[in-house]
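Input record, target 12 of the design panel.
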């Protein structure tokens, strides 16, 4: 009898052992299936990303307003509580040059003061001639009389100069090249020396934003910036950080630093002081660098490393030197080559796509999901 026949005869005579054999085979198959399926699921959950070249940019953002580089409120410098405006020579939003007439005030009293000062000077000069004729000797008394009259003439000249200067105050002129704004008076109105007749602002504008202390720590004068203006349908322009406060401002236990952005406002015709602006300041930027998602890099006291996935599904640890990093990506200075696959930590983002702090040259994510070794999920092989 062949072996298969003898086995069959044995199980017929001993059915108990036959049942045990069936359970043993079934249990072994189930155990093998669970182990295989678990390994397959575990391997299928490994996430990878392709090492690629991309552009990295680190930036901070802030919101603020547009301001004129210089602004001067023009007031009536002449004394008095109610001075009449006798003429207005400009309109709001009119461009003016330095020295252009803005308005004139009633100068009747100032004109009379100049006339009186001129008469006083003429009288002092006449007395000076008389004194020289009367006290022409070189005695001490004569010299003293002549000197006293010379002082009187000098004082009269100074009073005339002051009177003429006061008269000039009744002409309100542009202090520099700019634009008239806030003109609120007309001929016949009365103003006091505390009332602003108009303001003149420079055509040059700048943006001022507030940055928190963390963002401000990375910003320096000279950093490039992109400005966006919602009031101008989202129009944008570029600028440069021109100034950042040395000392912060504390409000409700929050420290902020005012930062000024210089830009060419002539490119935006409708832009006005006071409009809101959103600013992105680039604090660091590199182009065409080898990079991977931050989730691929592990850092320890001995340095940084990544896990590289081979074409055969095997993995190996590789030490790398890192450089510039953004919120999502990190530069690999040495240790990896473009096209290699690296394994990502499961709890972190793995995208190399563009963001406010990272710009990808390819514009696509290098992240993929790959099964590493083991059979796929499914039932056990047929028996």
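The sequence produced for target 12 reads:
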């Amino acid at each position: 009898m062949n072996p298969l026949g003898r086995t069959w005869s044995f199980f017929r005579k001993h059915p108990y052992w036959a049942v045990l054999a069936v359970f043993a085979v079934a249990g072994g198959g189930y155990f093998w299936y669970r182990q295989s399926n678990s390994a397959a699921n575990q391997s299928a959950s490994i996430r990878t990303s392709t090492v690629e070249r991309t552009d990295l940019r680190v930036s901070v953002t802030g919101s603020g307003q547009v301001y004129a580089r210089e602004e001067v409120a023009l007031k009536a410098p002449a004394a008095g509580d109610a001075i009449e405006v006798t003429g207005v020579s400009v309109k709001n939003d009119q461009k003016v040059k330095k020295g252009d007439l803005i308005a004139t005030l009633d100068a009747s009293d100032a004109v009379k003061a100049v006339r009186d000062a001129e008469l006083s000077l003429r009288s002092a000069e006449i007395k000076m001639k008389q004194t020289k004729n009367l006290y022409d000797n070189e005695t001490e008394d004569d010299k003293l009389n002549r000197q006293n009259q010379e002082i009187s003439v000098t004082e009269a000249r100074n009073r005339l100069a002051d009177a003429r200067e006061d008269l000039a105050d009744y002409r309100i002129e542009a202090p520099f090249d700019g634009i008239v704004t806030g003109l609120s008076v007309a001929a016949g109105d009365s103003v006091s020396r505390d009332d602003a007749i108009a303001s003149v602002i420079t055509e040059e504008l700048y943006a001022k934003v507030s940055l928190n202390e963390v963002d401000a720590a990375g910003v320096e004068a000279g950093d490039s910036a992109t400005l966006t203006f919602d009031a101008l349908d989202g129009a944008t322009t570029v600028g440069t950080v021109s100034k950042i406060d040395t000392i912060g401002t504390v409000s409700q236990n929050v420290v902020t630093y005012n930062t000024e952005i210089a830009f060419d406002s002539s490119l935006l015709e409708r832009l006005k002081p006071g409009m809101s602006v959103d600013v992105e300041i680039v604090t660091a930027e590199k182009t065409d660098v080898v990079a991977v998602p931050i989730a691929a890099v592990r850092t320890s006291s001995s340095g940084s490393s990544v896990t590289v996935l081979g074409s055969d599904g095997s993995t190996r640890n590789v030490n790398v030197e890192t450089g510039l990093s953004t919120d999502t990506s990190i530069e690999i200075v040495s240790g990896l080559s473009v096209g290699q696959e690296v394994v990502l930590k499961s709890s972190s983002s793995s995208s190399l796509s563009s963001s406010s702090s990272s710009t990808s040259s390819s514009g696509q994510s290098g992240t993929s999901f790959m099964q590493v070794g083991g059979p796929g999920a499914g039932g056990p092989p047929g028996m």
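The chain is about 25% helix and 40% strand.
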